[in-house]
């Protein structure tokens, strides 16, 4: 079973630097520091077989299994596992190893005890040279160094790949929500608390544990708390069935708990450390709650999915409204557009569509209000700035060249039109403002700037310079206008 949240793509803005760094560290430890362990294990197995330790311990293990109600495995039966598999089973059975080292399996009264004890010590010494054995978490000891080192080690390539897959998927999301430093703190603290849960659960027993599973489980628990009841896009794979589905993030907490904790605990022979998983999940939940209370969660990152989905929905609704306008279904289109403008005020395409509705089926007052709704907006970019001049020119036609909008609205529109280099629209707007208050000379600089932008020698330039001399004969720009007119 595989359940992964996949609702955000990597970008330069949200690149999970800390997550990638953790993956590289885990890969480095496995590929380089643990790379010599296989040869050491082969050496230990060869010693085990050559010295005859298996001839002593295999029958003892089979008898111990029978005594503890776990079924007997005889090394002499035709279906018995090979010696290597038998040894691996013994070394992974913490309860048996605890009894074995405590002399409760091969007792001191056994005539083979002294020989066995010496050979077993030599065998353990060989194994202790392995990096994994020297740095893995031991159930029988509290060793802070091993608590940390075990978080970056793995028992097999499959173990590594599975953990790194989840670390990349979940880590990217949690890191984006918390930032690099807080994320790393969560990862390390979650891994430590998961290890402490393992030590508490297995106290008094033999065995060891390694892997990033506890720390990653903490990220999974934190993810569910951070996203809460928001619906997230999840990829699932169950046997041969796989698909995407949207579910509340908190629902995944139950699914992950069942998968990581409940299912492994039901199998008495499972080598999965479900105590580590449970401790990690609970640690992540608790830490995430504390971070939320302190306001350390980046809400803008967490809410981005909803914003994107809402934008896509609104864009689809805007497209539907524009289609309705084309079909002259103006009331239905206006209803949609008013709802969009209420939910996200100030979107220029929505305001322009509302203006079109007013132009097709609206009173002069409605046309004025719709035009003001467009022209009072600041143009957010060049693409939308190009649309404002066309709305202004259309509005002038609707008003027969005499706009009814307040002067304050027209003054806010002036720099937008100037920025768009729509000189004819600027000409019409300035003439309107000047006609409203001929004594106001504050528009003289804007009119002179329009003259300078007009190509030399054209009738339009001469007409605009003449207009400046007519309206502002006493302004500082009048001499300049005369000079330019004299130049032709």
Account of the 3D structure:
With 488 residues, the chain is mainly α. Among the domains are: 2-33 and 149-302, Rhomboid-like fold; 38-129, no CATH class. Helices cover 68% and strands 5% of the residues. It is built from 25 helices and five strands. The chain has helices at residues 17-33, 37-51, 53-67, 83-92, 94-101, 113-127, 131-135, 144-149, 157-178, 180-201, 213-227, 249-266, 274-293, 299-302, 304-326, 330-343, 348-360, 364-375, 382-385, 387-398, 407-420, 423-436, 444-453, 459-471, 478-486, and strands at residues 2-5, 137-138, 208-209, 231-238, 241-248. The strands form two sheets. It has a three-stranded antiparallel beta sheet. Strands 2-3 form a two-stranded antiparallel ribbon. Strand 4 and strand 5 (241-248) form a beta hairpin. Helix 11 (213-227) runs parallel beside helix 13 (274-293). Mean pLDDT is 90; it is low at 75-79.
Structural class: mainly alpha
Tell me roughly what share of residues is in helical segments: 55-70%
Strand residues, percent: under 5%
Shape: elongated
Give the radius of gyration. 38 Å
What is the β-strand count? 5
Placed side by side, the strands forming the largest sheet appear as 1-4-5
The CATH architecture of the domain at 2-33 and 149-302 can be named as Up-down Bundle
- Spans of at least 5 consecutive residues whose pLDDT stays below 50 are 75-79
Q: Count of helical segments? A: 25
Report the end-to-end length measured between terminal Cα atoms.
Answer: 83 Å
Query: Which CATH top level class of the domain at 2-33 and 149-302 fits?
Result: Mainly Alpha
Rounded mean pLDDT is 90
């Amino acid at each position: 079973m595989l359940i992964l949240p996949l609702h955000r793509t990597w970008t330069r803005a949200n690149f999970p630097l800390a997550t990638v760094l953790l993956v590289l560290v885990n890969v480095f430890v496995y590929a380089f520091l643990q790379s010599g362990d296989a040869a050491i294990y082969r050496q230990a197995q060869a010693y085990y077989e050559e010295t005859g330790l298996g001839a002593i311990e295999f029958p003892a293990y089979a008898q111990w299994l029978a005594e503890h109600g776990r079924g007997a495995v005889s090394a002499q039966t035709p279906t018995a596992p090979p010696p290597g598999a038998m040894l691996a089973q013994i070394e992974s059975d913490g309860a048996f190893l605890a009894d074995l080292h405590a002399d409760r399996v091969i007792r001191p009264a056994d005539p083979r005890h002294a020989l066995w004890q010496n050979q077993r010590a030599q065998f353990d010494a060989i194994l202790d040279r392995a990096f994994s054995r020297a740095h893995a978490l031991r159930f029988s000891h509290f060793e802070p160094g091993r608590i940390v080192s075990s978080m970056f080690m793995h028992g097999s390539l499959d173990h590594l790949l599975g953990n790194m897959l989840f670390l990349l998927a979940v880590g990217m999301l949690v890191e984006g929500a918390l930032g690099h430093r807080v994320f790393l703190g969560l990862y390390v603290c979650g891994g430590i608390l998961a290890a402490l849960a393992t030590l508490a659960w297995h106290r008094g027993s033999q065995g060891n544990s390694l892997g990033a599973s506890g720390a990653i489980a903490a990220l999974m628990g934190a993810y569910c708390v951070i996203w809460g009841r928001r619906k997230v896009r999840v990829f699932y794979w169950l046997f041969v069935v796989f698909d995407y589905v949207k579910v509340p993030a908190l629902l995944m907490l139950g699914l992950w708990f069942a998968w990581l904790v409940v299912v492994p605990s039901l199998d008495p022979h499972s080598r999965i450390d479900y105590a580590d998983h449970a401790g990690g999940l609970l640690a992540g939940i608790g830490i995430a709650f504390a971070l939320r209370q302190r306001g350390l969660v980046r809400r803008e990152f967490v809410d981005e999915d909803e914003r994107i989905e809402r934008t896509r929905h609104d864009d689809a609704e805007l497209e539907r409204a524009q289609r309705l306008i084309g079909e002259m279904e103006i009331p239905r289109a206006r209803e949609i557009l008013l709802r969009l403008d209420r939910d996200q005020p100030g979107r220029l395409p929505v305001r322009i569509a509302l203006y079109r509705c007013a132009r097709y089926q609206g009173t002069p007052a409605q046309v004025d209000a719709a035009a003001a709704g467009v022209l009072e907006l600041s143009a957010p970019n060049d693409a939308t700035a190009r649309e404002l001049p066309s709305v202004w020119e259309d509005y002038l036609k609707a008003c027969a060249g005499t706009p009814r909008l307040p002067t304050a609205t027209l003054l806010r529109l002036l720099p937008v039109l100037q920025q768009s280099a729509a000189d004819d629209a600027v000409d019409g707007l300035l003439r309107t403002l000047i006609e409203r208050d001929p004594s106001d000379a504050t528009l003289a600089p804007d009119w002179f700037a329009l003259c300078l932008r007009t190509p030399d020698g054209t009738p339009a330039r001469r007409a605009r310079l003449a207009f400046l001399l007519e309206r502002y004969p006493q302004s500082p720009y009048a001499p300049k206008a005369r000079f330019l007119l004299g130049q032709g």
